[in-house]
Amino acid sequence: MMDGSKPKVSTKSKRRQRAPNAPPTGEAMFAQRAVKSLAETLYQDLHKSIVAMDILPGTPLSENEIAAAMGVSRTPVREAILRLSDEKLVEVVPKSGTFVARIPVSALPAAQIARRALEIETTCAAARRATKEDIVALRDIISRQYAIVETGDNSDYHVVDDELHAKIAEIARLGSLWDMVQQVKTQIDRCRKLTLHDPGRKSFVTVQHEKVVDAIEAGDEELASQRMWDHIMGLQLDLPSMVQEYPNYFIPDMDLTAT
Amino acid sequence: MMDGSKPKVSTKSKRRQRAPNAPPTGEAMFAQRAVKSLAETLYQDLHKSIVAMDILPGTPLSENEIAAAMGVSRTPVREAILRLSDEKLVEVVPKSGTFVARIPVSALPAAQIARRALEIETTCAAARRATKEDIVALRDIISRQYAIVETGDNSDYHVVDDELHAKIAEIARLGSLWDMVQQVKTQIDRCRKLTLHDPGRKSFVTVQHEKVVDAIEAGDEELASQRMWDHIMGLQLDLPSMVQEYPNYFIPDMDLTAT
DNA sequence: CGGTTTTAACTTGTATATTAGATATTGCGA
DNA sequence: TCGCAATATCTAATATACAAGTTAAAACCG
To answer: For D15, which residue's CA is nearest its C1'?
Structure first.
């Protein structure tokens, strides 16, 4: 590199210099992320698999294996795993191994409480702000839920369920609260995959949804939040028996006999 | 790679084989993370600098520059930046640059609401569970706050402030809620750095803290949460004037004239 | 001199190589 | 057979190298 064959005079060394405190000006800022990075894709895939309990807690995840299996290098795999580690979906043990995270028992009641608090707030705000168009959108989602209940197709119900909650948050202009709910909800979702679901429950839940929307339409904050409360509290996990049945999937960091 | 010069007979290929669904058994699991990884250190440093507004929104962050300055490779720097990106503290524009994130205006009211909801929940639970020892610990923190108020040392007050809220969450056995609060609080904290603080305010806040603790000691959920509400709502940011004064530090993704 | 094109230097994204630590197996000695 | 030490081979952590894309300044042209 020390050769003297520079085409002309050395071009004054400093070329591109961005002014300090200059936000990006180029067009890349507006790109719609047409191509997801490999790391992003891998992250989404792994996230989905872990939350769906397709990969069970405790399962070793090898960066090398995944990289080889997906035909990419370790770097994007690693970046995906680090993100999952921040979300407590994998446990990285330095120099030793990476494992699908076991579910910390203590996180489950806390998650339920946090979710309840956030969704109540969201529901109240939605009841205050909802327009006629918003109500139409909500009822559309509910009708799609009823359609799924009819067909009995299990897989898609929770997606539309989430869609409703997301829409309520959007109406409340509190989308970021729904993002938080989604985060805390993941461990609960993983638990739910461990239990068989009452087939009549989906119908029951949809009716609950409808009642919430009724109250939002009426602008009755109190009633709407009460109904949302009932809806969320309706999901009760039998922790002790679950932990007993699948001890390897949990971190028993809480006394289950206590409150 | 196709050579046939394997040293001996291939040693039965499979050696170390970890049983499926086997959580880690080694001692590394219990290591107290004696040595923080470079990535972790860099993350903490950058996080601190950004939240303290030592690095202003819009400032370009070059992975190469940081790596060179710290005498490490790009890899740990990159991992730190990716984490900050997940927390919305930096904006990464692919193939273009990385910048200290501007503050999304819409996130601020939402953060306030989320924080309020979570801390109310925490305070109620703490009022139910607090023991005599817990109250002693809380009062100790408050006395340290008063000490800081006396000296007028600005820098450490917010640390002890956070300590109190963290302790309340710990008493409530809802530490994870405090973790969530800390996350949403960061953008608010960055804003607060932009405004001069009333020197009498610290004293006022400490009195509020004391009143909250009084209510917790009395086991009065209602009163405690009411006082916590007042305490949290006492912090009002004058968004319009802040955005006007520092337009480059904000993303104006919300109509400030509306509610 | 103004507008356009070229181009080189900068960016992050990904791939590969090296390093250092953890651990299950192995082999040895009692 | 049991306990223990040696070691091979796994792991994640870090370093380096390369590729693909962006952008601002320089070169060119009118």
So the answer is: B73
Mark whether B97 and B137 lie in a shared domain.
Answer: no
Same domain, A146 and A95: no
Instruction: Answer yes or no: are the C-beta atoms of B108 and B134 closer than 8 Å.
Output: no
**A188 near B CB under 8 A:** no
CA of B93 to nearest chain A CA: how many angstroms apart? 7
pLDDT averaged over chain A?
Answer: 87
Phi and psi for B97 in degrees, rounded to 5?
A: 175, 170
Question: Quick check: A20 contacting B, CB < 8 Å?
Answer: yes
Polymer length in residues for chain A: 259
User: Considering the domain boundaries, does residue B120 fall inside one?
Assistant: yes
3-state DSSP assignment of residue A60: strand
| Minimal-distance CA residue of chain B relative to A180 | B180
CATH of the domain at B200: 1.20.120.530
Which candidate in B96, B183, B225 is best for mutational testing of the A interface (most A CBs within 10 A)?
Answer: B96
Confidence of residue B25 (pLDDT cuts 50, 70, 90): low
For B55, the domain range is 37-102
Q: What token pair was written down for A159?
A: 């997606």
